[in-house]
Amino acid sequence: MIVPSNPESVFTYGAPALKFGSGASAEIGFDLGQYGVRRVLVLTDAGVAATGAPARIAEQIAGFGMHAEVYDGVHVEPTDESLLAAIGHARASGPWDAFVAVGGGSSIDTAKAVNLLSTNPGELMDYINAPIGAGRAPSHPLKPLVAVPTTTGTGSESTTICVLDVLGLKVKTGISHARLRPVLAVVDPDLTMTQPPEVTAAAGMDILCHALESYTARPYTSYERRRPEERVPYCGSNPVADMWSEQAIRLLAGSFRTAVRRGDDAEARGAMALAATFAGLGFGNAGVHIPQPTPIRSRGG
Amino acid sequence: MIVPSNPESVFTYGAPALKFGSGASAEIGFDLGQYGVRRVLVLTDAGVAATGAPARIAEQIAGFGMHAEVYDGVHVEPTDESLLAAIGHARASGPWDAFVAVGGGSSIDTAKAVNLLSTNPGELMDYINAPIGAGRAPSHPLKPLVAVPTTTGTGSESTTICVLDVLGLKVKTGISHARLRPVLAVVDPDLTMTQPPEVTAAAGMDILCHALESYTARPYTSYERRRPEERVPYCGSNPVADMWSEQAIRLLAGSFRTAVRRGDDAEARGAMALAATFAGLGFGNAGVHIPQPTPIRSRGG
Question: ipTM, 2 decimals?
Fold first, then answer.
């Protein structure tokens, strides 16, 4: 274990506002109205679009006097090419005052990139983490992004990260900045009921990995003290992130098997949706890591 | 117990971003720089001003090229008169781009009212909760408010509420709106070390009451379903608020007596500061209540 000479004494915590529960996604028009927006782009993938949820949400937004359009070209596991297509669409059809992402992590991450590149100058590679990209920070504020997860796993609604594959380099990387975080997460378990068992299982393992990796991440106190400009959203495990991770694991333990076996069990779906949200709030601040295959290892050591 | 005919299924959760730990208050200049502000008003009371902390924070902000002034006229337990004086000062010396409250709940609550009334038209009584005031909602966005608690109790850094005494009516009431919530809570246990034992004890009981009242508040599901425009920041006990409350009580159990007896115990002061923050994050969403003197009572019943 590395012992810092001047240990970090400060941790940070950020989160979107949360609206959780059955029916929460039927109130997005009202919520967007609070931000004083006029033109709203709803981003989703073709599979989620086929469930009808994104169109319902767009209609509901329009009912509050706003203009809302659906873009269903999100690529599952976004690539630089799919993000460029979405950004190109948003730039050509904009300006947009707000974005709503309906779907799994792919839709939410795509919306983060679209929000960034339609409010800030430059191109995608300018903002991708170094050394793949230039790791540039946004110079202008972003527009409000509302994230509506339809899988119980991603946690992207809570994080500052957009993950993508850069096809030409055969590498998976990301864009990370505090301004990418959605302003509001609308978690409606009703939207997750149609996940097939395999998706429920895979997404549930995602929750478990998020919570465990966040809980066992190096503690923030194990780093050298950072200057304020060196702070990053993923600051290491800390008392706040630990609490979310513990509770996510507890919820999983009580609901994961039921949600896979009986997809229509509303209570299990609700607990899984809450577990995914909690794990996102934890790892969105502590960070995740590649667990080492060391058989016996003290926590955070 | 009242059983709703159409029970609420949605709860909401909001919180400021958090920067926690020894030395956190020495980074406020950098943090304010992220909001692109130029003129910053630091609000405090005379007692806290005498510790030198507000002046140090203002100097540190000025070191980042911003103009910062200290207003130390906050009244401990704010009144309509003391708020009007602070609002008058801010309006006359403004416009201000951001506010920093350094102190207990009185300073933070005063800053909320000053922020509201220097960004929105009308007078104090227009915004005070009905039926005492007109219960008007702000029509314009507020400026960023950074809350820096120096007592371990208030929780005001996390809430949407400003509490005040209306002297002419001999009544304690408040102003509550989601926009009053600070954007950033900077919780630096170093600033809490000078609390005398009586203050540590009284403020610690405040934590306990916040956590217990929030934990035993009527659950959100015990209310009739609200329309989105009827939702209030205090939505009843819920899984998120419960988690904060439980953890606040656990932290208190391990640190309260030590913090009162040995005010220089940094670990106990840190745990109390965290407990106060957690309790604020809980009751700032669930709400508080007047516990009923019923000896045996099932939870939330």
Answer: 0.93
